[in-house]
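Both lines are given unchanged directly below:

***
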Amino acid sequence: MRIDNVCGVCNLVDESENHLFFKCDLSHRLWFCSPLHLNSIELIGADFLDSWNIFCTSIKDREDAEAIMQEFAFGLWRIWKNRNDVVFKGSHCQPNEILTVWRKNIGEYREAMNHGSLDEGAVRPLKSPPMMPVLWEKPQFGTFKLNTDASWCSASFRAGAGWVIRDFAGILHAAGGSGTSTFHCAAAAEAHAIRTGLQYCTEYGFENVFVEADAKTVILMINKGTAPNCSFECILGDIEVLARRLTSLTFGFVPRERNRAAHSVAKFVFKEGKDFVWDHVGPEFLFNVLVQDVNISICI
């Protein structure tokens, strides 16, 4: 089978099912944002059968293994259907559209099975595992959300400033922080975290950004809702300059429970006392927080 840009976003040419189902950029995004929240790169084996065995082995000890496998099968089918739409109809769907249909198919199937008549002795359908409340809110399509936070010590004045950038699907694009700075107050450290995250956005081409932080006072200052604090007015000025370099930029306050990813980075860099920048893979501690933020119970 020849797969030639059927993913809709990938220019690679590959003749393996493994490329289509797990390796291409579209499938990687879909698995990460799917109900299973999988890191598809870790599933790639020598061939498709090997990849299937890797997946089955990873979930074999879970109580809801059959339900997970069911959703996995629906994911494979949806990727294949998208491939056929591209090849035979020239129809390209956005990742969020594919995910919507995927979830709809799973829901319709389970509803039909739960309400349909079952013969005696038939295997009864598994109920979907209960979903936890959504904490972090995804931005609109085409917008990147920059979450920032600071961890500050009043005794040493040392601060850890963390930031995390994710897209509309909740996929990590970059994260980082600084654990080497000192500030006279927590608000100054919070403003520094926003400035540091925006600097990365301007340097690496994130044009449409929605900034979220749990520092209400600082957000009010940036949005001109209250007078700026003269003690760190220079940082606020830098933020204003950086804002003019972006196509669109919005600042919003978010409660701490919806800002856990940035908070975890701030705590980490504060503890390490170093500066860090990670790409879309990210450290293990952050990956686990991202999984919880998109309301998924499985993490591989």
